[in-house]
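Action item from last meeting closed. Structure (264 res):
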């Protein structure tokens, strides 16, 4: 089956589609024209340079370089998760990056070794795209989970303090908020899993089919990826919140107020 490339001239026709949301924005006065153009411009530039660099990495296929690229992805995912949750980056960065790195790398290596059965676990063609899909989805779960957890404690401070005053330990008093936050973190992923195949054909499966793979092969990869995303999302969100306890709470179980100070 031939793989049809998209020429740069043809890509321009794709950009013409943006006239539709821009027209709607101007007509209804949504004021999204500037943000739309800026977002698409940034995406295009970032993907262009990422494509050039990934092409070099794929051709070289050096295990250490591949891991360094994944490490950079983890670094920015951790920073973005804390920043997007409106929390103190300096206070939470170390525990969050350790939690995200462990959960995503553990699931990634497991999938490459026991599911795909790769001889080279650090093969760039598998390591980097799968890591990107895991991190992209766990990032959303971490933003929701971490932000929801600490904001709920802040909004319900009196109830939380009352639990502590009755003799509850820090973990015991925080447990109801942890449960609620983790459910919120994984709910979008579960909804996505439940609708795949009937409501939508996901990007990875579509990409493989367009690339010439058998639909049955694409389905097996998609099942693997969705399970991996769900596991890494709930594991990453759980470990991120638990790992942050040491720096987020003082010895009396109270939340350090500088946690809510945004910086960097």
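Sequence:
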């Amino acid at each position: 089956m031939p793989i049809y490339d998209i020429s740069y001239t043809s890509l321009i026709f794709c950009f013409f589609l943006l006239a539709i949301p821009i027209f709607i924005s101007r007509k209804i006065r949504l004021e999204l024209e500037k943000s739309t153009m800026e977002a698409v411009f940034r995406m295009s530039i970032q993907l262009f340079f990422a494509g050039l660099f990934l092409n070099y990495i794929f051709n070289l296929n050096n295990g250490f370089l591949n891991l360094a690229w994944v490490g950079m992805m983890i670094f920015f995912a951790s920073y973005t998760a804390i920043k997007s949750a409106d929390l103190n980056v300096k206070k939470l960065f170390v525990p969050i990056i350790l939690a995200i790195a462990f959960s995503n790398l553990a699931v990634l290596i497991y999938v490459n070794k026991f599911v795909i059965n790769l001889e080279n676990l650090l093969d760039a063609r598998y390591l980097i795209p799968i890591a990107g899909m895991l991190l992209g989805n766990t990032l959303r779960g971490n933003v929701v989970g971490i932000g929801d957890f600490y904001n709920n404690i802040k909004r319900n401070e009196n109830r939380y303090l009352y639990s502590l005053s009755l003799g509850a330990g820090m973990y015991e008093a925080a447990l109801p908020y942890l449960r609620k936050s983790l459910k919120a973190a994984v709910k979008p992923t579960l909804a996505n899993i439940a609708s795949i195949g009937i409501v939508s054909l996901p990007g990875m499966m579509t990409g493989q089919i367009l690339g010439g793979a058998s639909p049955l092969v694409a389905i097996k990869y998609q099942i693997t990826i969705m399970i991996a995303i769900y596991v890494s999302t709930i594991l990453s969100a759980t470990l991120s919140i638990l790992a942050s306890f040491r720096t987020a709470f003082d010895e009396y179980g109270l939340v350090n107020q500088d946690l809510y100070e945004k910086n960097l």
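Note appended to the action item: The CA atoms of residues 149 and 155 lie 10 Å apart.
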